[in-house]
Amino acid sequence: MEEKLLQLKQVVTAIRPLPEQEWQQFAAIWKPFSAKRKETLTVAGEREQYLYFVVEGVQRVFYFDEQNREATLVFTYAPSFGGVLDAFMLQQPSRYFYETLSPSSFLRTSCNEVQHLMQTQPGIDTMIREGITHSLSGVLERLVELQCYSSEERFRVLLKRSPHILQLVPHKYLANYLGIDATNFSKLLNKVRI
C-alpha cells in the first residue's frame, strides 16, 4: 500500500504539492481495489461512485450511440487518475462506460470523501481544480486533433505524446480512439516510422 500511495503522491505533487497535513488526510481516503480484464467499472446511465488512481493495467472510457457505434474516448494507465470524471464530480448518471483492458490494480475513493476534503481543505480543493483544468486542456487539444489533423497526423501526435501506447493498448482500440478504420490503422503502422 505504501508504494501505491507514493505513486499517488508523486502525481499529486506534479499537479500541486500539498502541505504534509493535507497530504495525510488525502492519502487516508484511498483504498486498494483490483479488477480483472474486460471488467466494466462504470456503466452508462449509472452514477460514477469512485475516483480511481491507476497503479497497474490499462483501462478505457468509451461511448455507445443509438446505432450501437462505439467511440473510445480516453485510455488510463499507471500512474494516473481514472474513471468518468464528469459523472463523478457532478454526481449525475454517466454517459460513458469505464472498463479494464487488462487486469488492473487501483487505489480508489468515493465522491463523498473527495467532496468533504475539497470543502474543508483549501489546498486539496485547489489541487483537484488544477488537475481537472489540466484534463480539460487535454480534451481541447484532442478536439483540435480530431477536427483538424489527418489520420496520419493524429497517429504521429499520439505516438509522440505516449510512445509506449502501442505496447499497452490493443490496436483495435487505438484505431477506434483515433477514428481510423482498423485496416487503415494497420497500413499506418507499416508506414509511420516508430
TrEMBL record:
Record-annotated Cyclic nucleotide-binding domain positions: 35-120
**A Pfam family annotated for this UniProt entry:** cNMP_binding
Coiled coil residues, start to end:
none
Q: Name the residues that span the membrane.
A: none
| The protein's name | Crp/Fnr family transcriptional regulator
Entries under CDD domains matching the protein: CAP_ED
UniProt-listed InterPro entries: cNMP-bd_dom (IPR000595), cNMP-bd_dom_sf (IPR018490), RmlC-like_jellyroll (IPR014710)
